[in-house]
Structures are given as C-alpha cells and as structure tokens.
C-alpha cells in the first residue's frame, strides 16, 4: 500500500491552500487521476477531494457566453440544451469523447487536466525514459510505437499527443479558463512541450480551475466537431476538427471562421492559417480544400503517424464544407 | 412436445425432443445479472493472503537482482517468492508430453524468455501491500536484444502445426495446376498477434490441507487441469478439487493451466495459508497464450470456366523460443474448395514472446481471412460473382482427403443468406455503390467452416424414488450456455421434464466432461449425458419389465418408452407407470448409470465432418477518410442439430462480432526495440464496442447428420469468426477498390 493523505476540502479557498502543499493533487471525477496512479505515473501524497464543493457544477448560458463550472460532468454539459444550440461543437466534442461511463464521472475541470495516452509516458515500470515524467530522462516514444503520436507541436524532447476532444472545441472559440480570480485563454493554458514537456498546463500549485467561459458568437452557434477514428466509440481521434463559421449577409462570404484540430498535435491546435486564408472569401470547395492543407503546415511525422498529416486537412475541409451547407 | 425415448438406441436426431430444440433462456442468467454468480476471484477463504506477480520488463535475458528486502520490509508483506525459495515441484516445468500443456515459467531459474514473464511473487495481507511490494522489488536485468516480428529470427519448418498435424501437405501437383491455369492470382496477407482478453482475468484462490488442494479457478478443462497440477506437485489427482462453475470467457486461454495459476498454488504452499492471485489486464499479455501473427501467401489457378486448378497456401507464423504451438493457418485450404491440386505449408520463427495458443478458431480464423480474400480476388480475376465462383468450386467431397461429408448444407446456407442479404443486386465491379450520404458502400461474402470435433467425456445419471433425476458431468460453462444446453440434453436423456432434473457441472469431483474447446463440448459431454440417461433408463426398464406386479411386465426393453417421468408400453400407451412407482416397488431409493461420449472411430475414418456457413457483409467507407463501418451482417449456418436455438444464435452472433474485431480492430502492437506490447489494455487494444456492431442476423439452417454422433450435434462456438472476417475484407474491397492485405484494416490503409 502506498499511503497518501485524503483531505476533504471545506471550501474553494481551502482546496487551493491544500493543493499548494507539495505532492498534493485535486480529486474531482478521478477518471484520469486514479488511472494514472494505478500505472504509477501519479503518486499523490495528498488527495484533496473537491467533489462535494457547492456552486462549481453550474452551467450558465447567455447571449454573451457560457460559463461552465469546473465540477460539471462531461455528460451533463454534452446534453445541456443551450450548449447544444449555442455551442454545438462543444456538445458534439463531449459526446464523442471517452465512454458513457467516463462522461458520467469526469468533470469539465478535470477534462482540461487530462494527460496524454502516450504508452511510454504511462509505463514508468518498463520505460524509465520520459521527459514528461522525468525531465532530462529522454523520450522512449521516438523510435518506438508512434501511431498515436503528434505530428504538430512536437519537440526533440516529446512527441506525446494531446488526446482530448473538448479542449479542441474550446480553443476554437477562444474559451477562457477561470482560475478563481485570474483567467487564462485556453490556447495559453495548454503549453507546447518544447524543452519542458513536464509542464503541460499554465497552472501553478495553489491554483484551481473553477470554471470555463466560452464567449458566445455566431461562429460558435454554427459549429461542429468532426472526429475520425477506426472505432465508432471509445477511441481517441485519428484526427478531429472543431469548426465554426459565420457568413456575411450574402450567406456565402466568410466573415468569421474558427478551426482547431485534435488527435494530431501536442496540444489543442488552433489552425489560424486556415482561418486567415478563408476569411473574407466566398466558401468554395476547392478553396476550402487548398486552405485546409495549411492546417498541417510544419507537421513532422515519426513513421506510423504519417497518415495523420494526410488525414487532418481532409477532416478540416469536410467540417468547413459541412458548416457551409447548413445555412 | 413429449419425448419418445425408445430403449433400442434409435438415433436421437430422428426423435422429437421435448427439451432439446427449445429456446430456453440461460438457467444461470438470473445469478449472473444479479451478481449472485460466484466467479473464482469472488472466493475468500478464512486467513487468505493476496499474491501479486512481479513480471519482467525485458523480453530476453536474466534477472540480475531483486530487492526482496525492500519488498519484505513493506507493511503487510508476508513473503516474497523467488527462484531461491520457491517450493519444489515434482517435475520440470519445462517438460511436456502432449500438445495440451504449456511449458511453464514457475521461477525455475533467473532466465527471462518474454516480456511479462513472472519473476517473483509477493504475498501480503492486502492486495495493495502485495502490489506495492512487487513494485519495490526494483529488478535489475542483464538484457539481450529482443527478437520480434515474422522476420525476427531464422525460419524453420515445424514438426507439427496446431495439435500436431503435418506442417506440409499436398494433393496433386500444384505447379502443374498453376501452369495449366488460364487465370492466376497470387497475394500475401498479414494478420497480427491477438490476445484472448477474456473479461474475467485468470485468477486462482487456493488452499492446501496437507497434500490436498482446494482450488477455485476458471478452467475450460477441469480434468486436464487437475491432471496437470497433480503432475507438477506429485500428488494424486483425486486430492485436488477444482471448482469452476462460471468462466468470464475463455476463448482457449483457459484451456490449459497457465504459469500464474500454478504460482498461486506454490505461493499458498510457501506461506501455509490460502492465497488469491488475480492477473492484472496487462499481465494477461504474455503467460496465458495469444493468437500468433501470420503472413500467408496464396496462389490460385483457374481454368476458363472459373474452376480452380490449384490452391497453394503458405503460412509463416511464430512461436516462443521454448515451446511449440504453431498456428495452423494454411490448413484452412484443406476443406472448403474443390481443386485437383492443393498444397499447404507452414514455416515459423521463434520469438521472445509468450507461447501462442489456441484462440477461438485457431488456424481457422487466420487461415479463413486469407483464403476468403484470395477466393474473392480469384473470382474477380475470372470476372465472376464471388458466390457463383464459390458454387462453381463447391466441394462435393472433402478436397484434401476425398472423403464424403457426413452432412453439408452449405448450398442452403449460401442460398438463405444471399437471399436475406439481397446479394443478387450486387454490381460485379468495385466502387460503384454509394449511399445517400456519399459513403462508399461495399458488399462482400465469405464461407464459414469449422470441423465437428469430439473428445472424451463421461457422465453419471441417477433416478431417484421421488421421481426426480440427477445428471453429473464436470462440464464448463464459459458463457456459451453449458448449464442450460446440457440440462436440456439431460432432461431428454432421462425422460423427465427439465425442472425435475438436477444438473451438476463445473467441478472436478464430477465425471470428466472433457474440454470446452474445439467447439466440441456440447457434442462430447452431450453424448455422455445422453448415453448415461439411456443407460439408467435401461436399468429402470429392467426393474419394471421383469416384475410381474408391473403393468410393463414382459414388454421387454425395446417395448418401453420413457417420457415425462413414466415408462409406457410402446404397443399400448395406456399401460405405464411412474419412475417413482418402479423404484419404490423395488425398494430402491435411487439407481445410477454411467455414459461416455467419444468420437466413433469407424465414422471418423469414413466421413469428413464439418459445420458450414455463409456470411454476407455490408460496409460503408468514408471516401475521404478511409473510415470503415460495418453496417450489416447476415450469416447462415448449418451445424447439425440445434440443442437450443437462442444459445446457438448467440454463439453465432459472438463469432460474427469477433469477425468484425478480426477484420477491423484487434491488434497487439509491439515496440520492436523492447519486444513489449504497447497497447496491453482495453482502451487501446480494440475490440468492437456496441456502436461498431450493426444489424447482425444469424440464420439457422436445418441439417440432419446421422454420422457425427447419435444426437447429430456438430459445434457452433467458433465457426462464426470464419467467413465473417473475410466477408468484411471483401466488402471493403468492393466499396473502395483497395484490396486489404494487412489486418486489421485501418484508416491509413485506405487513405490513398
């Protein structure tokens, strides 16, 4: 038995204070933490249980924004009528994430803290080298089984893929993470591996996600999440795209376009080059397909994951064209 | 319906059974859905300790050091078992005298032969302490490079494949056949290593009492397990009591006792207390068997009418470095398609993996996906419809041996399944069908076949003076429905309603029911039950017909029928009496008799015995993404007599879903540097989820077989995989024009 302390936080402030202790980790749905503890990646000395904290599981949707409490369950958010109508990409991303059982347990705040499924990261007993776990120890994935590894945002230190779906939709629509009083754009919340792949999130000890805010927009309202994979459910994306679109009054010229990719990058990947190439243009299939290739500019593969570079632009193009059709 | 059991052993298939043929629901279903069914790991004898395996990180080399002191110092750890203190065994764990046993890794030395091999066992008061103790062992290794992949070592021709069949066989001259052919095809297909992944992990709860052993462990072959353990520990088999009332799946991996199970027994001996050992999911990728990878090359020649002139089927496979199981993939070409020349051959490499093993349709599944793909390629090369091509090459006798089939309703399977599926409107060329959403749609088919095997089994039947009956055989229910199907056979065998029959199974102190494997359990143990029933009824009839006080006096055995707990005169059914009356008059509380089930050697010589089927598949493929979804499966199967249509259909569904799994999902992915499998968990080792399983239809095609056994039973457990996997691959080709040559078929294979 590996002993740890269990602490039931009495308030958000108490949780923050406890989480600042060395070796402390917050426990919400537990679907990632328990899993990582079992495979020896997470070794918390103190578990700070926040599941019972009041006021953190709300879902408030207005014209301006959606504010989703950190403890709202993935399944509840996916099924929320206003999220479905005003932020369909968010709902669809959640529906296609994980399994029904996990969605019923996992929280939105915890979802943002989900870690990579890189099999080398998850297996410290057999692969001691992992820069994400042990800075400077090396990367076991490079040269190994790389079918599920990233082609965008990689570094010599780490090629682990960000596996989630929700955050891909969030980054497309400029969502913001609430850390109590302070706020961080989701795009900045997730960090590139660079030389410090052990640092994945812009969050410090003693900080805690309290909510996610997604600004309302016409492009968010007309949005979708397209996820491609070999298995119909309970599989991480081979490639996915969150796309939202807003047309000018003519119904053909693109006023605003949001594109983000999942399943291909080390973090939720905003594809601004695609957006910029098409904004102000008339939506037209060949132009969309050509612009979508910009989604994987600078991509590098590690053999078995090469297909993601082929696949991702096609997913982006399909999602954009699909949103163009649904006038 | 009533049973009319004549005592002259009239073949049962000609009778109308009262319980046999009924779609009864599972008798154990209520227990299972309410959590009342006690599986091996649910047991908790007083004083029990938990054992956890420490397993090897490396694929090959030796364990140089283990920190046993650190493990022992951990709170709750009672003992650490290593090669230094492992209790003695009566025989060498590496000895092997028949194909139905593993060479075992039982801490006999410090050598490592594959990843996840057991290198120590930590025994503790709690599961958590044992788990942490195992982690604290911090092994150091001297590692050698891992040999991985089908080209990872020098190949050789094994002495035997499967359970010892010849590795190389031929009939006629394949090269001549190919030369004379008007059309030829040649293609190579690769199938990956697959792991059984039964939902219930291998588990054992064991208690020693002197030299007696009490064991709860899932087993597909109780008597075999008992014999294996007896041999290893040098004790009498009857001193070992194994209970295995329910298995959470086996699929072959629980057919033979595995190393971890024996280590549980050794751990209990070492500490002198009961012990529970349960494998973690990732620990099942190594010591409990797997389906070996194959690379198969098929060459076929066809004359101007599309008749095969030659089939050449070669398979490369792999085994471990220390044991011999060779996937008999090429043998699939022996039984299905007529050809004047057939050659099959195998070669193999030895790799640093656990030993491969029987896995649901071993050889048949791997061979079938390659053969059915090649047949589809051959049909296309001849410009023929795949069904027409198969009918053109329909085997009227077993192709390799020339033996007549004991029965073969395959034409009817083709007809019914094709009609139900709507095959007739299929365009010959690929990539011509699209649905309303723009998905490429393809239709493919495959032929299913599996041998009708029988092993050896015994049963004991009892009739009691209260009018009830008892049937005992140590049968194994691994989810297929043995508790129900055997009770149905027992009821008919005893001439009783099923609710008057107590049926006992799942325990090694009952008569040997043989193994639940090879799709032969129902036929084998079913015949033992049937014969035991007939024998005890004969004894009962003797009591009645020989007693002047009985209304049956003088009727003779042949003149008596057994039905609903009564014996009747055949010539006058108004004259009869109950079992209870007969026994009470004779002053007996019960009578018993034994029966055996075994293949009939004479008919084995004369007939080829196989179940058959036809499977049709529809797939939809996204033209841009190569994402494949199976949308429809229709199978029709003829497998002799159906004991319980509900259970049989369920077996076909399970097999067909496994076919989806084989074609599109399952694959163990190995890190070539370390030899370790990198997806040893159910999140990343994929099997179909519900959303991947479309409309599945299984048609039961009537088939009378007077030769397989008196009950006319073939087997249904494995056939559903064969045919289905190939049908899906062929449908993918028909949808896309891309011929799958590597399985499972992935997005990246179709991106183009």
Automatic annotation (TrEMBL), chain A:
Pfam families registered for this protein in UniProt: CO_deh_flav_C, FAD_binding_5
Please report the stretch or stretches of sequence annotated as the FAD-binding PCMH-type domain: 1-219
GO molecular function, a single term: FAD binding
Q: Which InterPro entries match?
A: CO_DH_flav_C, CO_DH_flav_C_dom_sf, Diverse_Substr_Oxidored, FAD-bd_PCMH, FAD-bd_PCMH-like_sf, FAD-bd_PCMH_sub1, FAD-bd_PCMH_sub2, Mopterin_DH_FAD-bd
Superkingdom as given in the UniProt entry: Bacteria
Cite the entry's keywords alphabetically. Answer: FAD, Flavoprotein
Listed name of the protein: Xanthine dehydrogenase YagS FAD-binding subunit
Q: Which organism is it from?
A: Rhizobium loti (Mesorhizobium loti)
UniProtKB/TrEMBL annotation, chain B:
Species of the source: Rhizobium loti (Mesorhizobium loti)
- Pfam families in the record: Ald_Xan_dh_C, MoCoBD_1, MoCoBD_2
Polar residues composition bias: residue spans: 1-22
Note down the stretches annotated as region Disordered: 1-25
- In what residue span(s) does the Aldehyde oxidase/xanthine dehydrogenase a/b hammerhead domain sit? 34-145
In which domain of life is the source organism classified?
Answer: Bacteria
**InterPro entries in the cross-refs:** Ald_Oxase/Xan_DH_a/b, Ald_Oxase/Xan_DH_a/b_sf, Ald_Oxase/xanthine_DH-like, AldOxase/xan_DH_MoCoBD1, AldOxase/xan_DH_MoCoBD2, AldOxase/xan_DH_Mopterin-bd_sf
Give any GO molecular function from the UniProt entry: iron ion binding
Q: What is this protein called?
A: Xanthine dehydrogenase YagR molybdenum-binding subunit
């Amino acid at each position: 038995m590996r002993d740890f302390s269990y602490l039931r936080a009495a308030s958000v402030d108490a949780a923050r204070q406890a989480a600042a202790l060395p070796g402390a980790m917050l426990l919400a749905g537990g679907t990632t933490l328990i899993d990582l503890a079992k495979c020896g990646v997470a070794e918390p000395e103190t578990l700070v249980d926040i599941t019972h904290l009041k006021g953190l599981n709300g879902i408030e949707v207005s014209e301006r924004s959606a504010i989703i409490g950190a403890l709202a369950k993935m399944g509840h958010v996916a099924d929320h009528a206003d999220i479905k109508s005003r932020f369909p990409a968010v709902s669809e991303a959640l529906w296609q994430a994980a399994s029904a059982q996990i969605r019923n347990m996992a929280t939105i705040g915890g979802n943002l803290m989900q870690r990579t499924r890189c099999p080398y990261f998850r297996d410290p007993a057999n692969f001691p080298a992992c820069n994400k776990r042990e800075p400077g120890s090396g990367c076991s994935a490079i040269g190994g089984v790389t079918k599920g590894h990233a082609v965008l945002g990689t570094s010599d230190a780490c090629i682990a893929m960000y596996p989630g779906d929700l955050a891909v939709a969030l980054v497309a629509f400029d969502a913001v993470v609430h850390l109590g009083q302070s706020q961080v754009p989701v795009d900045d919340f997730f960090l590139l591996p660079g030389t410090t792949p052990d640092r994945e999130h812009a969050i410090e000890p003693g900080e805690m996600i309290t909510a996610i805010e997604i600004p309302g927009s016409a492009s968010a309202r007309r949005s979708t999440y397209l996820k491609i994979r070999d298995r119909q459910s309970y599989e991480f994306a081979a490639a996915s795209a969150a796309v939202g679109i807003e047309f000018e009054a003519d119904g053909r010229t693109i006023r605003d376009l949001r594109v983000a990719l999942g399943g291909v990058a080390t973090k939720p990947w905003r594809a601004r080059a695609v957006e910029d190439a098409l904004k102000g243009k008339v939506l037209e299939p060949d132009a969309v397909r050509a612009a979508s290739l910009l989604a994987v500019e600078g991509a590098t593969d590690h053999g078995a994951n090469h297909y993601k570079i082929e696949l991702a632009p096609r997913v982006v193009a399909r999602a954009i064209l699909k949103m163009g059709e649904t006038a | 319906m009533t049973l009319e059991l004549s005592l002259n052993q009239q073949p049962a298939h000609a009778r109308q059974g009262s319980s046999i043929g009924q779609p009864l629901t599972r008798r154990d279903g209520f227990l299972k859905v309410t959590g009342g069914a006690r599986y091996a790991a649910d047991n908790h004898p007083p004083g029990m300790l938990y054992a956890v395996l420490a397993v090897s990180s490396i694929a090959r080399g030796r364990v140089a050091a283990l920190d046993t002191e650190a493990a022992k110092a951990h709170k709750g750890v009672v003992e650490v078992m290593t090669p230094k203190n492992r209790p003695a065994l009566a025989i060498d764990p590496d000895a092997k005298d028949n194909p139905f046993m593993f060479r075992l890794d039982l801490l006999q030395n410090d050598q490592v032969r594959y990843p996840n091999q057991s290198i120590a066992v930590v025994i503790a008061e709690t599961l958590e302490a044992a788990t942490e103790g195992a982690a604290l062992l911090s092994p150091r290794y001297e590692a050698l490079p891992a040999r991985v992949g089908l080209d990872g070592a020098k190949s050789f021709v094994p002495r035997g494949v499967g359970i010892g069949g010849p590795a190389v066989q031929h009939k006629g001259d394949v090269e001549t056949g190919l030369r004379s052919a008007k059309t030829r095809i040649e293609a190579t297909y690769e199938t990956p290593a697959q792991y059984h992944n039964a939902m219930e992990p291998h588990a054992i709860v064991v208690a020693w009492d002197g030299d007696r052993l009490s064991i709860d462990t899932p087993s597909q072959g109780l008597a075999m397990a008992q014999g294996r353990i007896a041999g290893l520990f040098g004790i009498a088999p009857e001193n070992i009591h194994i209970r295995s009332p329910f298995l959470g799946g086996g699929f072959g991996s629980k057919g033979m006792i595995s190393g971890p199970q024996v280590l549980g027994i050794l751990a209990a001996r070492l500490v002198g207390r009961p012990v529970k050992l349960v494998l973690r999911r990732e620990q099942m990728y190594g010591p409990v068997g797997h389906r070996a990878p194959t690379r198969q090359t098929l060459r076929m020649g066809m004359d101007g009418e599309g008749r095969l002139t030659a089939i050449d089927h070669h398979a490369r496979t792999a085994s471990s470095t220390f044991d011999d199981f060779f996937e008999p993939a090429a043998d699939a070409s022996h039984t299905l398609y007529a050809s004047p020349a057939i050659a099959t051959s195998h070669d193999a490499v030895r790799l640093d993996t656990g030993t491969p093993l029987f896995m649901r349709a071993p050889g048949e599944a791997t061979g079938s996906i390659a053969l059915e793909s090649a047949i589809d390629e051959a049909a296309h090369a001849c410009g023929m419809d795949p069904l027409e091509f198969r009918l053109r090459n329909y085997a009227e006798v077993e192709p390799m041996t020339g033996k007549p089939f004991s029965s073969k309703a395959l034409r009817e399977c083709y007809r019914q399944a094709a009609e139900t599926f709507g095959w007739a409107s299929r365009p010959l060329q690929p990539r011509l069908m699209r649905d309303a959403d723009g998905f490429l749609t393809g239709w493919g088919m495959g032929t299913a076949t599996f041998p009708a095997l029988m092993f050896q089994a015994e049963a004991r039947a009892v009739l009691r003076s209260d009018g009830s009956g008892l049937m005992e055989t140590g049968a194994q229910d691994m989810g297929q429905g043995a508790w129900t199907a055997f009770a149905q056979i027992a009821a008919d065998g005893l001439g009783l309603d099923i609710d008057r029959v107590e049926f006992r199974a799942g325990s090694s102190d009952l008569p040997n029911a043989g193994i639940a494997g090879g799709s032969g359990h129902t036929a084998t143990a079913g015949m033992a039950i049937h014969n035991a029933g007939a024998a005890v009824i004969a004894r009962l009839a003797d009591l009645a017909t020989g007693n002047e006080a009985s209304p049956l006096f003088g009727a003779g055995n042949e003149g008596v029928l057994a039905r609903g707990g009564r014996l009747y005169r055949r010539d006058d059914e108004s004259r009869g009496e109950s079992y209870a009356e007969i026994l009470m008059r004779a002053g007996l509380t019960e009578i018993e008799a034994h029966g055996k089930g075994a293949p009939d050697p004479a008919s084995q010589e004369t007939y080829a015995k196989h179940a058959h089927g036809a499977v049709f598949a529809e797939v939809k493929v996204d033209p841009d993404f190569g994402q494949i979804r199976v949308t429809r499966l229709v199978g029709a199967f003829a497998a002799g007599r159906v004991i319980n249509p509900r259970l049989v259909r369920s077996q076909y569904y399970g097999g067909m879903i496994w076919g989806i799994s084989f074609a599109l999902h399952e694959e163990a992915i190995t890190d070539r540097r370390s030899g370790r499998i990198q997806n040893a968990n159910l999140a990343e080792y994929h099997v179909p989820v519900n959303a991947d399983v479309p409309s599945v239809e299984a048609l039961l095609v009537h088939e009378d077989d007077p030769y397989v056994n008196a009950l006319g039973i073939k087997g249904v457990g494995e056939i559903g995989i064969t045919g289905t996997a190939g049908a899906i691959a062929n449908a993918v080709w028909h949808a896309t024009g891309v011929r799958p040559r590597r399985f499972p078929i992935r997005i990246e294979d179709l991106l183009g």
